[in-house]
Design brief:
2 helices; signal; eight-stranded antiparallel barrel; 137 residues; alpha+beta; Lipocalin; 8 strands; DUF2147; single chain; DUF2147 domain-containing protein
């Protein structure tokens, strides 16, 4: 009887550990998908690689291509990690200058992502509100 109880406790512990990790991944993965920048001329696709989140340019308008050149598929977000209810510790790279800025992101709802971009020191920042690009069939 003791062996069965010990085995049952071990299985229960494995189940709790496994499902806890999955729920965290599901919460963190809410950021995945395509997001439109405020002027809706460019779109970034956020993806996960090795537990971190990255973003590459997925679509750009003709006027944006004139300003920045061919930046399609260029990585512009790197190394975001999920902590609490935010994605932190990442870098945003300006597509034409290559300048790097610290970035943090949070979702206000399922279709709105707020990126806070820090220029040098923490009290100089800019917020960008991105909207989820709806998938059309």
């Amino acid at each position: 009887m003791f062996l069965i109880t010990k085995l049952g406790l071990g299985l229960l512990l494995c189940l709790v550990v496994t499902t806890a990790g999955q729920s965290t991944d599901a919460s963190a993965d809410r950021i995945l998908g395509r997001w439109l920048f405020p002027k809706k001329q460019t779109c970034v696709e956020i993806y996960r690689e090795n537990g971190r989140y990255f973003g590459r340019m997925a679509a750009i308008s003709a006027s944006c291509a004139n300003d920045y050149g061919n930046i399609n598929n260029q990585v512009v977000l790197t190394n975001l990690s999920y902590a609490g209810n935010e994605w932190k510790g990442g870098t945003m790279i300006h597509p034409s200058s290559g300048s790097k800025f610290d970035v943090e992101m949070r979702m206000t709802n399922a279709n709105t992502l707020v990126a806070t971009v820090y220029k040098g020191v923490r009290f100089i920042s800019k917020e960008l509100v991105l909207t989820r690009q709806q998938v059309t069939n």
